[in-house]
Design brief:
The complex is a heterodimer. In chain A, the strands form two sheets. In chain A, strands 1, 2, 3, 5, 6, 8, 10 and 11 form an eight-stranded antiparallel beta sheet that branches. Chain A is mainly β. Chain B has two helices and four strands; from the N terminus they run E-E-E-E-H-H. The longest helix of chain B has 15 residues. Classes of the chains: A mainly beta, B alpha+beta. The interface between A and B is medium-sized, with 26 and 27 residues.
């Protein structure tokens, strides 16, 4: 038997303590960077004006099914280059529970907490460390491994920032979450 | 033209970046490789210095996929130096 994995996405006004999104979209197949914080919106209707930034996307990994432990998480942009004038910023590495990003209401301001430059496709081994826990991506007690079921990663937040970008869709890139399960 | 030497995540070195303020009041540091990084325009000098330093520590050591693929190709090319077993 194996773990069942899905990417989910929190959105909406921040709520609760620790903070989380008002709403959650489960089992997302892709994530769009656009001038909207609602993942169900059609991205082509919400273009980013050059010079501005997308709303942040607060995605996270969600584990269920049958497993003993989830560990060794890494997150990175692993395939396909962006065009010029685009910078993808992402969540910092988790080296302790206190490193996990706290959810904030998505906005288009350059998020200073997204300190990882994810613009270039890199080897997953160079990705940022991801931590896990039960309860939710917002929960305290995140660690490099978990036996909790269901389990969640910390928020894997990204924001697309533009400066001199050409009009039109970006290339479709690959974001990878790698983990061990046993 | 204002320039400041900061770390470029693409070039993986500290080098001069052209600094501008965009319409949103954000600092935009642009490398000659065209990679840019933004910082909030509301930061104090101390906060900006901290953010710039953190940008370097957070992004040093990234191995681009192209470099990894080249390393793998070079490893496989070693096999060309070995004769086939008879």
């Amino acid at each position: 038997m194996a773990a069942t994995f899905a990417f989910d996405q929190d959105y909406g006004t921040q709520t609760g303590s620790p903070t989380r999104g008002t709403s959650t979209e489960t089992g997302i197949a892709d994530v769009n960077w656009m001038n909207s914080g609602t993942p169900t919106d059609t991205y082509s209707s919400y273009p980013i004006t050059d010079g501005s930034n997308s709303y942040e996307n607060w995605i996270f990994g969600h584990f269920s099914g049958t497993y003993n432990q989830i560990s060794a998480g890494l997150f990175a942009h692993t395939a396909t280059a962006f065009g010029s004038g685009l910078t993808l910023k992402g969540t910092p590495a988790c080296t302790g529970d206190g490193d996990r990003l706290l959810y904030t209401t998505p906005s288009t301001s350059a998020n200073a907490n997204l300190t990882t430059d994810m613009t270039s496709a890199i080897a997953i081994g160079s990705g940022v460390a991801v931590f896990f826990s039960g309860t939710g991506p917002y929960a305290t007690g995140k660690a490099s491994s978990t036996t909790a079921n269901p389990a969640y990663t910390n928020y894997l937040t990204t924001q697309l920032q533009t400066s001199g970008a050409a009009a039109g869709d970006t290339a479709q890139v690959t974001l990878t979450l790698r983990y061990n399960e046993n | 033209m204002k320039t400041k030497a900061i770390f470029c995540a693409n070039c993986q070195v500290v080098k001069p970046h052209v600094v501008t303020l965009n319409d949103g009041g954000e600092y935009v540091f642009t490398c000659d490789c065209s990679r840019f990084v933004k910082f909030a325009g509301t930061l104090s000098a101390e906060e900006l210095a901290t953010a710039i330093a953190l940008h370097k520590t957070q992004n040093e050591g990234q191995v681009p996929v192209a470099v990894l693929e080249q390393q793998l190709d070079e490893k496989l090319a070693l096999l060309d130096e070995i004769s086939d077993e008879a």
